[in-house]
Amino acid sequence: MEVGVRVTISPSESSTTTPGAGAGTLLRRAWLVWSVAAACYFVALFHRASLAVAADAALARFGAGPAALSVLSALQLGIYLALQIPAGVLADRIGPRRVITVATLALAAGSAVFAISASLVGGLAGRALIGLGDAFLFTNVLRLAAHWFPADRFGRVAALTGLVGGVGQLAATAPLATSLRVLGWLGTFLGAAALTAMLAVLAWAAVRDRPENSGHGGAGERPSTSPEAEPVRAALRGVVGTSGTWHSFWVHFVMMGQFVAVTVLWGPPWLMRAQGYGAAAAGNWVLLCVAGFLVGAWLCGQFVAGRALRRERFVLALSVLLVAVWATVIGWSGVIPAALLAVLLVLIGFGGGAAMLAFDGARAANAVHRSGLAVGTANMGGFTAAVLIQLAVGGVLRLTEGLPADPSYRLAYVPVLLLVVLGMFGQARQSRRVWRDSRG
């Protein structure tokens, strides 16, 4: 397993990273830079999750059916997935500041196109731009964290970044539904576009790739080599040839894929059509799932991140629990009791929050100058699962149109269970390889 060369420095030594600045000043600057970048990620999650809440309005506006809606979501997530390796390369090569600014502008443009479009083609163009902007943000925010924070804080900062994204998803539930009701389609999405464009300007003004005179490593850490000195192909071989990277891929595959299945598209329709809730109540249930995400991200950042053995055991145990959750969703005939539904949705959300541990593992398994590429590779896991789920669920629903909603959705969720099981076995296999590699 390849790791970067690390050196431990005292607080007094860290103050030399930026000439004339104390360690406290440097840390405050790090949090300021991260906060602006994380705000861009916040709006990315808002735009990503907005389709789920606006699903019924989108169907009416574009004159489309559920299958077309799944194409809208799958296109957005597919673009996100396809661009994770380029996102990692650009994070390592040209720096997060430029990428974050341009990506946030793409989100603004996508929201504006989505707002003014009255046809499915226009809707597809808008969601494609949103997928494009979204694809580059998370990886670059974490690459920024690798530059500005010590390595032993990276896992907690990654979890905190996920927490910010979860709050962005909260903004895309009840607040978005209220905005659609009060401001309408055009006012809501054009307003979101304007605010996002303003944030892009702020990112360009406030974000810097790294502390001055810090080289290419994170604060308190020297890189093993300069990123410009290593060809992209060699860096990619190093990342994908590391067992820890693939373990992180499968962790994200399980945790994030099933969470996206519920919050980005299929949760509200299932809750309304198969479970009998109104639109407002379904939004509140999704809100509960996102709350589980926030709790999972925070707890994992506090008590699991940075502890390799604990992280490995925890994610495997949680994967087994998620298998039981989805088996219950599929196996329960009729309306699920409210108390049980609350537990299931919180656990689904908790798993999404725990997906942040994948980036802690990917960063620890790879050299610091490859951290953007490593995070991008791990991030592909959950969104590979998400794209497969969106298409599979939509396909099964189309095949079972003649059935009542309850059995139709239960059958449609079978692919989710199968993919969670696949990812669980993938984790177990890579855990054995990591253990074998560590023994020499």
TrEMBL record:
Residue ranges constituting the Major facilitator superfamily (MFS) profile domain according to the UniProt record: 33-431
Biased composition (Low complexity): 10-20
Gene3D superfamilies: MFS general substrate transporter like domains (1.20.1250.20)
Keyword Cytoplasm recorded: no
Region span, Disordered: 1-20
PANTHER family recorded: GLUCOSE-6-PHOSPHATE EXCHANGER SLC37A4
Protein's UniProt name: Major facilitator transporter
Transmembrane segments: 31-55, 67-87, 99-118, 124-145, 157-177, 183-207, 249-267, 279-301, 313-332, 338-359, 371-397, 409-426
Chief location bin: membrane
